[in-house]
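Hi F.,

I've been meaning to write this up properly since the lab meeting, where we talked about keeping a consistent format for the predictions we share between groups. The idea is simple: the sequence comes first, exactly as it goes in, then the structure tokens exactly as they come out, then a line or two of notes. No screenshots and no reformatting. I'm using this chain as the first example so we have something concrete to point to.
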Amino acid sequence: MEHTFSQIYIHIVFSVKHRERLISRTWKEELYKYISGIITNEGQKLYIINGDMDHIHLLIGMYPNKSISDLVRVIKANSSAFIKEKRFIGGTFNWQRGFAAFSIGKSEVERLINYIKIQEQHHGGTTFAEEYETFLKNYGIEFDRKYLFKE
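Output, unedited:
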């Protein structure tokens, strides 16, 4: 897209369906590399990916040629198929139906990268549901708790 200039940073968060703790430390790096490839193939820039056993965080530099919803749909569909193909788990694997996406400014990139790096330590004392609600509140997004994570 010549003559188009942008600086769009998006923090994306989504969980395993029903927040099941299915992402194993033994294969999560392989999954993250695969997701990184998806993002690159979609023409976007991944800054960092990390998470815990029930969810992932992505910080992506988005170009205006792709919608966030389309990108997340491709990431979730292809990574689910990858997990199934590799037989990382004994049963079925699905991501939650929705996702959260938050725009951040350039001045917040380093802070968010550092936050995403320490996800396993962070979730030693905080559940994903608590973290998710905190993000929604901090970004001023109205929500009804009874509809969060409804599948």
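Notes:
The CA atoms of residues 1 and 50 lie 30 Å apart.
The chain has a mean pLDDT of 90.

If this format works for you, I'll send the rest the same way.

G.
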